[in-house]
Design goal:
This is FLYWCH-type domain-containing protein. GO terms for molecular function: zinc ion binding. It holds the Pfam family FLYWCH. It comes from Brachionus calyciflorus. The chain has 98 residues and is α+β, with helices and mostly antiparallel strands. It has one domain: N-terminal domain of TfIIb. Helix content is 16%, strand content 35%. The protein has two helices and six strands, in the order αββββββα. Strands 1-2-3-4-5-6 form a six-stranded antiparallel sheet, with helices on one face. A hairpin with a 2-residue loop joins strand 2 and strand 3. The longest helix is centred in the C-terminal third of the chain and has 11 residues.
Length: 98
């Protein structure tokens, strides 16, 4: 009843996980990119909750996920910048170059 209904394009862009150059994680979700806030990177793969922060250091945007699995729950809204829909293409290109 209270489920968010996403069209196919939005569904595809609601959760994309990438490994970083320093063996960390980047998460792209509906126009925003996040990095791991907590726990420390070595504990992330077995963590039951992962806390994410917006990639933009000036933004207070925060989210939580159950481990490295969808869904992503937004806990603090993004301010000071727009969604960056091109960032997904950038991350995909970097992934292909590795």
């Amino acid at each position: 009843m209270n489920e968010l209904v996403l069209d196919d394009d939005l569904k595809e862009n609601s959760w994309r996980l990438f490994k970083t150059q320093k063996n960390g994680y980047k998460l792209y979700s509906i126009g925003y990119t996040y990095t791991v806030d907590k726990p420390v990177l070595s504990l992330v793969p077995q963590a039951s909750k992962v806390y994410w922060k917006c990639e933009d250091r000036t933004c207070p945007g925060r989210s939580i996920s159950c481990g490295l699995n969808p869904p992503l729950k937004l806990t603090q809204s993004h301010f000071g910048h727009e969604k960056n829909i091109n960032r997904l293409n950038e991350l995909e290109t970097i992934k292909k170059l590795k």
